[in-house]
């Protein structure tokens, strides 16, 4: 295989892995049926790396893995993420109708922003926190390139590629409300919900209407939510990130 073709294929495969819901997962994870709710971190045992209903989300076997642990932090039981030049996440398969439960609520706490991180630039597209929601949909609507990518996803991961994905992120400079393509796939849109470092070191609460965000991102109504995930990554900036996530909830009203 020519070098250019090899690099192109590698890029496609990486794009497949970065879009939540089609990632490779550890074979030791217990297979659980899809849930109609997101499993809360607050009910887990201390020190548990992840609940049985969550799966390690391995972006690339060449990357270090972010360490996730359930801890007591400021009197609350939450998920801690520690990334030391690492990139991996946690993912839960679900089956939720977003028209009935459109409001996504969560909270996070970031120790500090990542120097040099810029989600608008490939090669520095790290974020200390991400909340990720993937959706089913009519794959026949995808263009030729996206259909080819979907076939590669199925071939290399054994999982179907989500129709579309929303990522809620923290960026250093981009204004809150900015929406941009993930650096590796246009089927994943990033939405900046926090920017700059003025609110590091404190708990921040968010509620987003995923139906409205999906319509803005993709110009149509969403299908069912098929996975919810979190990711703290600092590999491209070769830095360290420490963050905490509270429970994530999809519900009818905030």
Put the structure in a nutshell.
The protein is an alpha+beta fold.
What does this entry look like structurally?
This protein is α+β, with helices and mostly antiparallel strands and 254 residues long. Helices cover 15% and strands 36% of the residues. It contains 3 helices and 13 strands. The strands form 2 sheets. It has a 7-stranded mixed β-sheet with strand order 1-4-11-6-7-9-8. Strands 2, 3, 5, 10, 12 and 13 form a 6-stranded antiparallel β-sheet that branches. The termini are far apart. The N terminus is likely disordered.
In angstroms, what separates the terminal alpha carbons? 52 Å
What is the helical fraction, as a range of percent? 10-25%
Q: So what's the overall shape?
A: globular
The major sheet is characterized as:
7 strands, mixed
Radius of gyration: 17 Å
Topology as H/E string?
HEEEEEEHEEEEHEEE
Which band does the percent of strand residues land in? 35-45%
Mean pLDDT: 83
Question: Can you tell me the residue ranges where pLDDT is under 50 for at least 5 consecutive residues?
Answer: 1-32
